[in-house]
Amino acid sequence: MTIPALPSELACPLPWHDPARPLLVARRLALSRGVRELCREFDLEIHAGQCVAILGRNGSGKTSLLHALAGLHDAGEGAGALDVRGEICFDGRSRADWPPVKAARFRGLLPQRQSMQFAASVQETVLVGRHPHLGRWGWESAADVSIARAALDCVGLQGFASRDLRALSGGEQQRVALAMLLAQTPRLFLLDEPLNHLDLHHQIAVLELLRALAADGRGVVMVLHDPALAARYADAVLLLDGEGGVAAGTTGEVLTAGRLGRAFGHPLRRIEVDGQAVFLPA
To answer: Is the dihedral of CA 189, 242, 266, 45 positive or negative?
Structure first.
C-alpha cells in the first residue's frame, strides 16, 4: 500500500492537545428511531492516526451513527426523529460544550449526498471549506486559495479550479466534495460513503489519501460497503447488524466470515490473496 505525502498546506497543525487523549470518545452511545433500535449501548475511542470503518447492510443506521458521532442529528419529535443517548466528547470535552465554529474546525463531515447544482466554479465550492476559519465578515485570503488548490491536487483535480461545478461528472463532483472537506483541515474526518460514484482507480486513491491523513495525525471514520477494503485500509471496524447490535474492535476481530454473513444477511467466504483478506458470497 502506497501512502502519499500530504502537501504542506494540508498538513496537520502542531498538536494543541494531549497526544494521549482520544480525539473522540463515545460512552454508552445508543441510537434509536421511534421503537426501532439502531445501536444498543457501546463505547468507542478514536485516536489520532487511526482509521475506523463503519459497515452494515442498507438501512442499518450507518449514516445516523456517523451524524451522531459528529454531534449532528435532528432534535425533532415523532417516529422519525433520531434519539441519541450517551455521551460524546471531542478532545476530552463534551460535544455540547463546543461552540459551533470551534467544532467545525475540529471535525468535518462528508455527507452521503452532495448538493452541487448551483452555478459556481470548482474553486469557489472548495473554498466553502475555509469558512470556519474566517471571521464573520472575512474574505478568503491568498493562503486560503493555496489550501483549496492543494486540496484539488490531492484528489486529482488539477486544472479544474475554474470549471463549472454543474458540468462535472458524479465522480468528479464527489472528489470536489472531498477537496472541500480537506480544505476545512479538521482534526477528525467523518465520511459517509466517500467512495460514492468513484471508479476503482479513484476509490483506491481516496482510501490511500485517508490513510495519509491518519498518518499525519488525524482521525478518520468512514462508512464503507466493501469488507475487503475495510480490512485493507481500516484499523478498527464498527459492524452494525441492522437489529441494534454493534460489533466494535480491530479489523481482525470483527471481519470474520460468520459475523459479516450474519450482519449482511448472506453467507460469505473469507479468502486471502497476497496476504489481503477478500470476502466472497458463499
So the answer is: positive
Q: Which CATH superfamily is domain 21-113+188-281 in?
A: P-loop containing nucleotide triphosphate hydrolases (3.40.50.300)
CA angle 17, 194, 64 (to 5 degrees): 75
**pTM for this one?**
0.93
Q: What is the pLDDT of residue 2?
A: 52
What is the rounded CA–CA span in Å between residue 235 and residue 266?
24
Q: For residue 183, with 0-12 CB atoms within 10 Å meaning exposed, 13-18 middle and 19 or more buried, which class applies?
A: buried
Strand, helix or coil for residue 219: strand
Instruction: Please give the pLDDT value at position 1.
Output: 46
Sign of the torsion angle spanned by Cα atoms 215, 66, 115, 204: positive
Structural domain boundaries in the chain: 21-113+188-281
Q: For each successive 10 residues of the chain (282 residues), what is the average pLDDT?
A: 74 69 95 91 95 96 95 62 92 93 95 79 95 82 95 95 94 96 96 96 96 95 96 97 94 95 94 89 90
d(C-alpha 136, C-alpha 170), whole Å: 32
Dihedral-angle region of residue 114 (phi above 0 means left; psi in -120 to 50 means alpha; beta otherwise): beta
Report pLDDT digits (tens) over 39-50.
999 999 999 999
In 61-99, where does DSSP find H-type helix? Answer: 62-70
- The grid coordinates listed for 175 are 472528489
Distances (CA, A) of 188 to 12, 69, 133, 154, 185: 11, 10, 16, 18, 9
C-alpha cell at 167: 458540468
pLDDT of residue 15: 58
Rounded Cα–Cα distance for residues 222 and 241 (Å):
17
First to last CA, the chain: 28
Contact predicate 20/59, CB 8 Å: no
